[in-house]
Specification:
This protein is of the alpha+beta class. The protein is 44% helix and 21% strand.
């Protein structure tokens, strides 16, 4: 005999069990840590996995941790969002700090002076479109591949130091997603100079300073810093400079490119006495960070960098 009341009770109980199971699944999923997404486009970056703090709080703690370490020198702090605003452009919170420890960094340049293009170290802090905050830095695998540094013993110490800084500032773990291997000197443009090291550097600095669209953020004498740590290094100097009107559109397309901005140009004299100016190929950076639809901007940046290098080397 069919009992409508019993059937109704069965339906209600079943519904409650399904709803309860669904809620448990949601709670369980919510409690699971968010791993680095597969769709991260930046190649060779290590990231904080699930920061539970605002970008401002992460950055503030990061600076405090850097300042508390007597072995570290703060070189420059760049607020990309603020610079974008000054140029009348919008950008989500994006900041990068440049810092170094000559005891750890110099051996990289002793192995390959062009490694000075990716030194000092940088940590990028940003908030993405979903409101998730991250801290990121160049992985040692990326640095080793790009500059041929596999046998340099300080790489592991650098990796541990960067991980500790980021994990301490974000209260989250650091992961390095698998990425496409980077070949030796990939994305590095180099121009041989007809001038002495000093003359090349002075001409480059003058060419940048005389361009009203550019602003010098920092200058770094890697050789002098090595000497202060009791180490030897051939003449190697870096100029960091930028133009928010050109850099911001790249970060609007992919915030992670902020770790490679502002632009950098390295002047160095190798063991044969040859003087060179090296800089990052903008198209390589676009490919590294998955930037698309910015061809006109990339062409302008490429032309500007080539013009500066030419002015310094001819």
């Amino acid at each position: 005999m069919h009992h409508p009341l019993k059937a109704c009770l069965v339906l209600i109980i079943t519904s409650l069990l399904v709803q309860c199971t669904s809620n448990k699944e949601k709670q369980s999923a919510a409690s699971e840590p968010i791993a680095i997404q597969d769709n991260f486009k930046a190649n060779g970056l290590s990231y904080s996995v699930q920061a539970q703090k605002s970008a401002e709080a992460i950055y503030s703690d990061l600076i405090s941790n850097l300042e508390a370490n007597s072995a570290i020198n703060l070189v420059a702090q760049v607020n990309h969002q603020q610079n974008a605003s000054g140029a009348g452009l919008n950008l989500r919170p994006t900041r990068v700090v440049l810092f170094g420890n000559p005891i750890l960094g110099t051996p990289l340049m002793q192995a390959n002076q062009q490694a000075g293009l990716d030194l000092p170290q940088k940590i990028l802090v940003y908030e993405d479109g979903s409101g998730q905050t991250y801290a990121a830095f160049n992985s040692i695998q990326y640095l080793a591949g790009r500059h041929g540094l596999d046998t340099v013993s300080t790489l592991t110490k650098i990796d541990n130091a960067l991980k500790n800084l980021v994990e301490g500032s974000t209260n989250s773990q650091v992961e390095t997603p698998s990425f496409k291997a980077v070949a030796l000197n990939e994305g590095v443009k180099s121009m041989k100079s007809m001038n002495s090291f000093s003359a090349t550097y002075e001409k480059l600095q003058k060419a940048i300073a005389s361009n009203t669209n550019l602003k010098i953020i920092a200058v770094l004498d890697h050789q002098q810093n090595a000497k202060s740590a009791g180490l030897e290094l051939k003449p190697t100097r870096l100029i960091v400079f930028g133009n928010p009107n050109l850099g911001t559109p790249l970060m609007q397309a992919a915030q992670t490119v902020g770790i490679d901005l502002p632009q950098k140009m390295l002047v160095y004299q190798d063991s044969s006495g040859t003087v060179r100016v090296a800089y990052n190929d903008p198209y390589f950076l676009a490919e590294r960070h998955g930037i698309k639809g910015r061809d006109e901007i990339l062409r302008k940046i490429t032309d500007a960098l080539e013009g500066l290098a030419t002015a310094a080397t001819k």
